[in-house]
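Something for you to look into today, if you have time. What I am after is a single protein written out in full by you. I want to see for myself how the chain folds. Could you add the entry underneath, on a fresh line?
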Amino acid sequence: MGCLMGLLGIGCQPALASPTLTTMPSSAASNLPLDGEGSASSRIIKVATLEADTENTTGMTLTISSGSISKSGGSLIPFQVVTVTSGAAPPTSGTFTVPTGNNYALITNQSGLVKRDVYIYYTPGSLQDPGRYDGAIILSITDNP
Protein backbone atom coordinates (compact mmCIF):
# COMPACT_ATOMS: atom_id res chain seq x y z
CA MET A 1 0.00 0.00 0.00
CA GLY A 2 1.42 3.32 -1.01
CA CYS A 3 1.23 6.75 0.51
CA LEU A 4 0.62 10.08 -1.19
CA MET A 5 2.61 12.92 0.25
CA GLY A 6 2.14 16.30 -1.35
CA LEU A 7 2.09 19.97 -0.66
CA LEU A 8 -0.36 19.56 2.21
CA GLY A 9 2.33 17.96 4.34
CA ILE A 10 0.19 14.91 5.06
CA GLY A 11 2.19 12.08 6.50
CA CYS A 12 1.30 8.44 6.44
CA GLN A 13 1.78 5.41 8.59
CA PRO A 14 3.49 2.42 6.98
CA ALA A 15 1.19 -0.52 6.38
CA LEU A 16 1.61 -3.34 8.86
CA ALA A 17 3.48 -6.29 7.47
CA SER A 18 1.47 -9.45 7.01
CA PRO A 19 1.94 -12.04 9.72
CA THR A 20 4.80 -14.43 9.06
CA LEU A 21 5.05 -18.14 9.71
CA THR A 22 8.19 -20.28 9.67
CA THR A 23 7.99 -24.05 10.14
CA MET A 24 10.76 -26.55 10.84
CA PRO A 25 9.71 -30.24 10.58
CA SER A 26 11.08 -32.59 13.23
CA SER A 27 13.09 -35.66 12.26
CA ALA A 28 10.24 -37.85 13.55
CA ALA A 29 7.73 -36.26 11.15
CA SER A 30 8.88 -38.39 8.23
CA ASN A 31 9.36 -41.62 10.19
CA LEU A 32 6.30 -42.11 12.40
CA PRO A 33 6.05 -45.41 14.31
CA LEU A 34 2.98 -47.28 13.05
CA ASP A 35 3.20 -50.61 14.94
CA GLY A 36 0.69 -52.87 13.18
CA GLU A 37 2.21 -56.29 13.85
CA GLY A 38 -0.50 -57.54 16.18
CA SER A 39 -0.31 -54.74 18.71
CA ALA A 40 -0.56 -50.97 18.67
CA SER A 41 -0.26 -48.12 21.12
CA SER A 42 -1.28 -44.49 21.05
CA ARG A 43 1.50 -42.11 20.08
CA ILE A 44 2.24 -38.46 20.77
CA ILE A 45 4.91 -37.26 18.35
CA LYS A 46 6.46 -33.82 17.84
CA VAL A 47 6.23 -33.13 14.11
CA ALA A 48 7.39 -29.50 13.86
CA THR A 49 8.49 -26.31 15.52
CA LEU A 50 7.02 -23.08 14.27
CA GLU A 51 7.54 -19.37 14.69
CA ALA A 52 4.61 -17.04 14.07
CA ASP A 53 5.03 -13.28 14.18
CA THR A 54 2.81 -10.25 13.69
CA GLU A 55 3.03 -6.51 14.12
CA ASN A 56 -0.76 -6.35 14.49
CA THR A 57 -1.60 -4.99 17.95
CA THR A 58 -4.70 -7.20 18.20
CA GLY A 59 -2.64 -10.34 17.58
CA MET A 60 -3.05 -13.21 15.15
CA THR A 61 -4.80 -16.52 14.68
CA LEU A 62 -2.81 -19.61 13.74
CA THR A 63 -4.92 -22.46 12.35
CA ILE A 64 -3.65 -26.04 12.05
CA SER A 65 -5.56 -28.83 10.32
CA SER A 66 -5.87 -32.41 11.50
CA GLY A 67 -6.80 -35.44 9.44
CA SER A 68 -5.53 -38.92 8.71
CA ILE A 69 -2.32 -40.67 7.81
CA SER A 70 -3.13 -42.95 4.89
CA LYS A 71 -1.92 -45.08 2.03
CA SER A 72 -3.70 -46.18 -1.10
CA GLY A 73 -5.84 -49.18 -0.22
CA GLY A 74 -4.79 -49.07 3.44
CA SER A 75 -6.56 -48.27 6.68
CA LEU A 76 -6.73 -44.61 7.72
CA ILE A 77 -4.98 -43.53 10.91
CA PRO A 78 -6.79 -40.43 12.25
CA PHE A 79 -4.67 -37.85 14.10
CA GLN A 80 -5.28 -34.80 16.26
CA VAL A 81 -2.99 -31.78 16.66
CA VAL A 82 -2.02 -29.43 19.47
CA THR A 83 0.77 -26.94 20.13
CA VAL A 84 2.78 -26.18 23.25
CA THR A 85 5.31 -23.47 23.97
CA SER A 86 8.53 -24.38 22.18
CA GLY A 87 10.78 -26.43 24.45
CA ALA A 88 8.01 -27.23 26.95
CA ALA A 89 7.19 -30.75 28.06
CA PRO A 90 5.23 -32.83 25.51
CA PRO A 91 1.46 -32.71 25.90
CA THR A 92 -0.57 -35.58 27.34
CA SER A 93 -3.38 -37.33 25.49
CA GLY A 94 -5.94 -35.28 27.43
CA THR A 95 -4.52 -32.09 25.89
CA PHE A 96 -5.76 -33.08 22.42
CA THR A 97 -9.32 -31.76 22.68
CA VAL A 98 -10.02 -30.82 19.04
CA PRO A 99 -11.49 -33.84 17.19
CA THR A 100 -9.82 -35.24 14.08
CA GLY A 101 -10.96 -33.42 10.96
CA ASN A 102 -11.43 -30.12 12.79
CA ASN A 103 -9.00 -27.22 12.88
CA TYR A 104 -6.94 -26.39 15.96
CA ALA A 105 -6.62 -22.62 16.52
CA LEU A 106 -4.10 -20.66 18.55
CA ILE A 107 -5.25 -17.09 19.06
CA THR A 108 -3.00 -14.36 20.44
CA ASN A 109 -4.16 -10.91 21.54
CA GLN A 110 -1.02 -8.83 21.00
CA SER A 111 1.79 -8.32 18.54
CA GLY A 112 5.00 -10.28 18.71
CA LEU A 113 6.74 -13.56 18.07
CA VAL A 114 5.26 -16.88 19.21
CA LYS A 115 7.37 -20.06 19.20
CA ARG A 116 5.43 -23.34 19.40
CA ASP A 117 6.05 -27.07 19.02
CA VAL A 118 3.41 -28.98 17.04
CA TYR A 119 2.43 -32.48 18.21
CA ILE A 120 0.13 -35.11 16.75
CA TYR A 121 -1.75 -37.83 18.62
CA TYR A 122 -2.75 -41.04 16.84
CA THR A 123 -3.32 -44.74 17.36
CA PRO A 124 -2.42 -47.08 14.47
CA GLY A 125 -4.33 -50.30 13.95
CA SER A 126 -3.02 -53.44 15.64
CA LEU A 127 -2.82 -55.05 12.19
CA GLN A 128 -1.87 -51.97 10.19
CA ASP A 129 -1.25 -52.59 6.47
CA PRO A 130 2.46 -52.45 5.64
CA GLY A 131 3.76 -49.86 3.19
CA ARG A 132 4.32 -46.15 2.80
CA TYR A 133 1.83 -43.84 4.49
CA ASP A 134 1.42 -40.12 3.89
CA GLY A 135 -0.29 -37.32 5.72
CA ALA A 136 -0.43 -33.55 5.63
CA ILE A 137 -0.94 -30.75 8.09
CA ILE A 138 -2.07 -27.41 6.70
CA LEU A 139 -1.08 -24.24 8.58
CA SER A 140 -2.51 -20.79 8.05
CA ILE A 141 -2.02 -17.51 9.85
CA THR A 142 -4.08 -14.32 9.79
CA ASP A 143 -4.01 -11.05 11.66
CA ASN A 144 -6.92 -10.54 14.04
CA PRO A 145 -9.33 -7.72 13.17
In short: The first strand starts at residue 20 and ends at 25. The mean pLDDT is 87.
